[in-house]
Amino acid sequence: MNKKINKLSKLTEYYDLYKLLLTNLQQEIFELYYFEDFSLSEIANNRKVARSTIHDILKSVEKNLIQFEDKLKLNYQNKKLLKLILKIKDQDLQDDFFNLLKKY
């Protein structure tokens, strides 16, 4: 169970960073499955395709997100940056950095 939660957490973090690199269809299926809690069958029925088609698309999206992170490392860099910001003693300066990060 913990492994599933960890996978879900990573995938949703990666999705937030890399969703614009996915097609609209891939985004829709990922969001329905992971954020709206639709089953593969429900998504397939709504789109009038086979369940295996949705499964294949979802697995492809998961693979792509992992590959994007492996190559670009945006999530890793963000976490490193957050750790550094938290070391700043001046709260106003820390807030300024957090606000700057939110823009990107």
Explain how this protein is built.
Helix 3 (40-47) packs across helix 4 (51-72). The protein folds into two domains: 1-72, Arc Repressor Mutant, subunit A (Orthogonal Bundle), CATH 1.10.10.10; 73-104, no CATH class. Helices cover 82% and strands 0% of the residues. It has helices at residues 2-18, 24-35, 40-47, 51-72, 74-86, 91-103. With 104 residues, it is mainly α. The mean pLDDT is 93. It comes from Candidatus Hepatoplasma crinochetorum Av. Might take part in the signal recognition particle (SRP) pathway. This is inferred from the conservation of its genetic proximity to ftsY/ffh. May be a regulatory protein. Belongs to the UPF0122 family. This is UPF0122 protein X271_00475. Pfam families: UPF0122.
The SSE string, one letter per element, is HHHHHH
Average pLDDT across residues?
Answer: 93
The shape, in one word, is elongated
CATH superfamily of the largest domain, by name, is: Winged helix-like DNA-binding domain superfamily/Winged helix DNA-binding domain
The tally of helices reads: 6
Q: How much strand content do the residues show?
A: under 5%
Helical coverage, percent range: over 70%
> What is the name of the CATH topology of the largest domain?
Arc Repressor Mutant, subunit A
How many β-strands, per DSSP? 0
The top-level CATH class of the largest domain is: Mainly Alpha
Number of domains: 2
